[in-house]
Amino acid sequence: MTYPAKYPTLNETTLTPEARAILKRIIKTAFPHPGFPEEAYERMTSRIVTEADASTWFRVVLTQGLIALGAQSEEPFLELSDERALAVLRRVADLEFFGFIRRTTVLNLYDDPQVWDVLGYEGPSFDKGGYLHRGFDDLDWLPTPRVDGPEISVPDSGPLPYPVTQAGQSPQSPQSAPDRDAAAGSAAARAAGPAPDSGTGSQAPKQHGGGSK
Known about the structure:
Elements: H1 8-11, H2 17-30, H3 38-53, H4 56-70, H5 82-91, H6 96-108, H7 113-119, H8 177-192
Helix pairs in contact: 2-3, 3-4, 3-6, 4-6
């Protein structure tokens, strides 16, 4: 296994103008926005090169990835149609170099002020006093939502059939729970009739003190 740090020439790896053009084409193919200015894609290309310059590993990965990309088709990547270029990128989507490009682009392309203008984003508001008095709901770039369908009416259910108590209040019922339980027990006892002799009533043998006769 070789380590790039052992070979100083790898630390001096730079992208040729053609390689930068390929990198820009990769970004535009993976993130196609016809309304985005070319300057935004140029700045994104420079940002990826800067990020790669700060790391020997990503610099080598990016350089080798561009070489591997050129081997995916017989024609140069810059001469491919948009559909064929996208198909080539799909074949290398799992490579580390494309993951590096994708992560860096997602975090930086949409943070470009020129891109904000295209998308209708007004930028941060904390230094301008917030959005409350600056049109917080003026999203002109979104279509007006349609509200279709019949109106739904909620029927009146009327008063509840039981008393409702709030926390800290005693139930406002005419009969408390213990009284209701006692009344229910008495009614059940009357319905059951007299209890059978248990042997402890009048039929039980009498016990006399002082021992047996």
